[in-house]
Automatic annotation (TrEMBL):
Domain (Glycosyl transferase family) ranges: 225-378, 660-810
One Pfam family of this chain: Glycos_transf_1
Name of the protein this chain belongs to: Glycosyltransferase family 4 protein
InterPro entries linked to this entry: Glyco_trans_1
Lineage top rank: taxon: Bacteria
Species name: Teichococcus vastitatis
Key words, A-Z: Transferase
Length: 841
């Protein structure tokens, strides 16, 4: 599992010094320690240069050199950029491409709500190029305290947009059960998408034995002259600093006079006003100490020196300071709100945040009872030990792994994102509506090239995959299946370092990327409109589709590919129109022959779907003296045999189920009804079996083709039709899978084929195959299939009879059963590793 972790929570000025920064650093550090075989990649926002360098230096000894990367986004003009702001859209586009270059299984964000101009906030994390998007959920405080935090329309728009992105994230890692419940309720989420991973305190927080010489300089520097009550918090209203003051001020005079209140918080310009309010509440200046900017060493020392740690916060996502104090052995007293009772599971140490007198009573009880404080100190240390970063990291990693095991959710298509033309189109659209950014276009391009080094000139090349015919249809059979499955396999696994696959629709003078076609093939939502692809240095063009009638019109594109130093590679499916014209439609031999001659003439390489076709092609070129380039390469690969893509679970149609409902064994033929498939021969053989009283069924699966009108009429009028003879002419993949799973055996009766996909598909599903004895079937079926003489119905009937009598020598494990990923890998070996079959000089 490769996880790309955006470390922004540990970088920004708004988060790095706060709990978010501390939480991010500690959790990720524990994840690195717990990663095992997982591949963790840390992603840094280079706009925060000093912090990024510090984080990189921290993790450099713990991770491989290439595990830390940086992106840079355009800096906005103000806080809280709205979603439509061009800087935010450009930054989102840049970071998506940076993540695409990492090809992660999981994209994990450590902090989405970053409002500063130099920060990065994704517009929709679920669209990032990973199988799973994940995010740490700290809290949804602004939605709970809208009047306090969302009273600025710009801030509210920005926050709600980011909250919408959070709601679309596939997995939320909540830092408490309280935060988890809030997310489920406020964002209307499926509870299974939100996991409580809890949190822990830094190991530096612990009990200390401090001498007077060690303690006194720090106390004197801060003005602490008496025992003190301590509160560490931010300055925002929900932290309830005034509640801490009011509770302390309400102490009985002797206790108040003998103690001081230490507030570790940064009030900035508001400190003077706060002191005036404190005095109005009855707290003299000498009893209130305010400080900020303490390092961890000073903070740990102060927690150890404090008599009581008071925590009156109105709401906390986790409440880390409470746990830090407990870990130091400091007696704690806190408000019973939000997540705090998850840490302090003792009612006698909790108070109502709205009841200052109740808080004062609890504080007085602790300050006046040393024995109780010692008991609470010991209890707090034991309780805090149950919160560990190791446990949180394991919970987070396990949650990601479990979600990845489910059907893969949508993710953007990395291949498109790593294409420079795609970036040019998206960036051009954004900048066209932002004329004020014209003078910054150069800097934006620099940010893109910094963040995505693969866009640098000459850093990558592309394999343009022709899908011109298939992309305009809904067909999934024959060549269309090969085009879709090979294209999908290219997109789902790297071709090789520095090569990007890109599906294209060709026109006579141009090529256009078709991201929506790829998204549909991968069973994902639409990915974007087509855009023109500029042929550039080193682009190869793989003519994978069935462009028989249009191939010659693409000659200008072929010329441009060659001019740019690329190659034209054409896929050859079969030579049936040339070698067996009698089984084709009337004009196909002429059309196909013209296409073949053009393909041989224009291509730098020809790659066939079997070695048998490659042998036929070599002989045909030589026998017919076809013109070709000197050194023309001939290669081959085997098609994949996995039918349904991962995550597809459509049921079979009722007619399919009915065909296998009887008690007799069912033999299946898969393929379009056409003369070369010889389904009539299969029916002849079964009529012989039925005449001999043998009870078996024949199921034909395939749409109506050409020159088989008589066969179609014969099937429909046959007395066994719907009984022991079935024809499924509108079968989907789910029907084919059902048929294979329930078949006695699969029959392949063809007179000629380019590959023989049903043989491999059946074998992959552990079904035996009986097939005609043609070279390509021998190549695919090997020693695992049963063969009968080509065109001999009586021989097939005899083979079936012996089969039903128990003579079954087929062994599916010995049949070629490549996956489509294997097919793409084989094509890669041919194209980029030079594993060609023959060279024609």
């Amino acid at each position: 599992m490769r996880i790309a972790i955006d470390m922004q929570g540990a970088l920004t000025a708004g988060s790095r010094p706060r709990g978010i920064g501390r939480y991010t650093s500690q959790l990720v550090h524990a994840m690195v320690q717990q990663r095992g075989d997982d591949d963790l990649r840390l992603v840094l926002n280079a706009n925060h240069a000093a912090a990024a360098e510090a984080v990189a230096a921290e993790y450099a000894p713990l991770l491989p050199r290439d595990a830390i990367s940086r992106y840079r986004v355009p800096v906005g003009s103000d806080l809280h950029l709205p979603p439509a702001a061009p800087e935010r859209r450009l930054g989102d586009a840049i970071v998506r491409r940076h993540i695409a270059g990492l090809q992660p299984d999981v994209m994990m964000a450590t902090s989405l709500f970053e409002p500063a101009a130099a920060d990065f906030s994704p517009l929709d994390l679920s669209r990032y190029p990973a199988r799973l998007s994940a995010c740490i959920l700290y809290d949804l405080v602004p939605l709970l305290f809208r009047d306090l935090y969302l009273n600025n329309p710009v801030a509210e728009l920005s926050y709600r947009a980011t909250a919408a992105s959070l709601a679309q994230t596939h997995l939320l890692l909540a830092i408490s059960e309280s935060a988890r419940r809030d997310a489920i309720r406020l964002l209307d989420l499926d509870p299974g998408r939100v996991v409580n991973i809890s949190g822990a305190a830094d190991g530096r927080f612990g009990p200390l034995q401090l001498s007077s010489d060690q303690a006194q300089p720090l106390l004197a520097r801060l003005g602490l002259e008496r025992p003190f009550v301590m509160y560490v918090s931010g300055a925002d209203p929900r932290k309830n600093l005034s509640g801490a003051v009011a509770a302390f001020a309400a102490l009985p005079d002797p206790l108040r006079q003998s103690h001081q209140l230490l507030l570790v918080t940064n009030l900035g310009a508001g400190e003077a006003e706060f002191r005036q309010k404190a005095e109005a509440l009855g707290l003299p200046p000498q009893q209130l100490v305010l400080t900020s900017g303490l390092d961890d060493e000073a903070l740990v020392r102060l927690m150890n020196l404090a008599t009581v740690f008071l925590f009156p916060s109105l709401y906390e996502g986790f409440g880390l300071p409470v746990l830090e104090a407990m870990q130091c052995g400091t007696p704690v007293l806190a408000a019973n709100t939000s997540s705090i009772p998850e840490i302090i599971d003792r009612g006698d140490l909790l108070f109502d945040a709205g009841d200052n007198s109740g808080a004062a009573a609890g504080l007085a009880r602790l300050l006046g009872d040393a024995a109780l404080r010692r008991e609470i100190s010991d209890w707090g240390i034991r309780r805090a030990a149950s919160f560990t970063w190791q446990r949180s990291a394991r919970t987070a990693l396990d949650a990601m792994r479990e979600r990845l095991a489910e059907p893969p959710p949508f993710h953007a298509i990395p291949c498109e994102l790593l294409d420079l033309d795609n970036a040019r189109t998206e960036f051009g659209g954004i900048l066209a509506g932002a004329p004020a950014l014209d003078e910054r276009i150069g800097a934006v391009v620099d940010d893109l090239l910094f963040s995505v080094p693969g866009f640098q000139e000459g850093a990558s090349r592309r394999l343009l995959i022709d899908v011109s015919m298939t992309q305009g249809t809904d067909l999934w059979s024959g060549i269309q299946r090969v085009v879709r499955q090979v294209t999908a396999a290219f997109y789902e696994q790297p071709l090789r370092d520095g090569v990007i696959p890109l599906a294209v629709r060709l026109e006579p003078l141009a090529a256009f990327s078709v991201p929506d076609f790829v998204a549909a093939t991968l069973d994902r939502p639409p990915a974007g409109l087509p855009y023109q692809v500029e042929i550039r240095d080193g682009d190869d063009l793989f003519m994978l589709d069935s462009s028989w009638e249009h191939y010659a019109s693409f000659a200008p594109v072929f010329t441009e590919v060659e001019r740019q130093g690329g190659r034209v590679i054409t896929c050859i499916y079969d030579l049936i129109p040339e070698l067996h014209p009698e089984v084709c439609t009337e004009n196909m031999p002429e059309v196909h022959g013209r296409w073949l001659a053009n393909a041989v003439r224009h291509s730098h390489g020809l790659i066939c779907i079997s070695r048998a076709v490659a042998d036929e092609l070599i002989a045909y070129i030589r026998n017919n003296a076809l013109s070709h380039r000197p050194g023309l390469r001939i290669g081959w690969f085997h098609c994949g045999s996995n039918i349904q893509r991962a995550g597809t679970t459509l049921p079979a149609q009722p007619a399919t189920v009915q065909a296998f409902a009887g008690p007799q064994p069912v033999f299946v033929c898969v393929g379009t009804l056409e003369p070369r498939k010889a389904q009539d021969l299969a029916l002849d053989a079964f009529e012989q079996l039925w005449a001999q009283g043998i009870d078996a069924s024949l199921c034909l699966i395939g749409k109506l083709g050409w020159k088989v009108e008589a066969l179609a009429a014969r099937i429909r009028s046959h007395p066994e039709h719907g009984k022991r003879l079935h024809w499924l002419n509108d079968a989907r993949d789910a029907d084919v899978v059902f048929a294979y799973n329930h078949a006695e055996a699969v029959l392949c009766t063809s007179l000629a084929e380019g590959f023989g996909l049903p043989i491999a598909e059946a074998a992959r599903m552990e079904r035996p195959v009986i097939c005609s004895d043609i070279p390509v079937f021998r190549e695919v079926g090997g020693a695992g299939a049963v063969y009968f003489p080509v065109g001999d119905a009586a021989a097939l009937a005899g083979t079936l009879r012996r089969w039903l009598d128990g003579e079954r020598p087929a062994d599916p494990t010995k049949v070629s059963r490549n996956s489509w990923a294997d097919a793409a890998l084989r094509i890669r070996e041919v194209l980029y590793e030079g594993d060609w079959y023959r060279r024609l000089d």
